[in-house]
Amino acid sequence: QVQLVESGGGLVHPGDSLRLSCSASGFSFDESYMTWLRQIPGKELEWLSTIGRYAIYTDYADSVKGRFTISRSNAKYAVYLQMNSLRPEDTAVYYCAEGRRPISGNLESMRRGQGTQVTVSS
């Protein structure tokens, strides 16, 4: 079965960096687009970034463009999110998900891991 395990979250100060990792198994990772989402308590899931199968295609939400970088290793069945210049408003639970954003926009329908908490606070 599909299993996605995120790691790398933590408590950091504004302006700091973090690198999130997601380990994948149970599906053909190298044939799948991969996506990072986040959720602030009480709010809906937010799409952050998607990477294509061979890492040629990447796309970012305006809220993180220029600060976050998505990457992947098909050999390691892993996807990463390098987060720089973190802000308090980046505080959320971060999820990796298999695939691209659904045309419907229903992010809840994406298969995702249990998430990793990122807290940005001074």
Q: Could you outline the blueprint of secondary structure elements for this entry?
A:
Layout: E1 3-7, E2 10-12, E3 18-25, E4 34-39, E5 45-51, E6 58-60, E7 68-73, E8 78-83, E9 92-98, E10 116-120
Parallel strand pairs: 2-10
Antiparallel strand pairs: 1-3, 3-8, 4-5, 4-9, 5-6, 7-8, 9-10
Would you mind describing this structure in some detail?
- The protein has 122 residues and is mainly beta.
- The protein has strands spanning 3-7, 10-12, 18-25, 34-39, 45-51, 58-60, 68-73, 78-83, 92-98, 116-120.
- The chain is globular.
- The mean pLDDT is 96.
Sheet with most strands: 6 strands, mixed
* Helical residues, percent: under 10%
H/E element sequence: EEEEEEEEEE
Class of secondary structure makeup: mainly beta
* Largest beta sheet: strand ordering: 2-10-9-4-5-6
Average pLDDT for all residues? 96
Measured by DSSP, the beta-strand proportion falls in over 45%
Q: Tell me the number of strands.
A: 10
- pLDDT < 50 stretches: none
Report Rg: 13 Å
Could you give a short description of this structure?
This protein has no helices and ten strands.
Highlighted features:
mainly beta
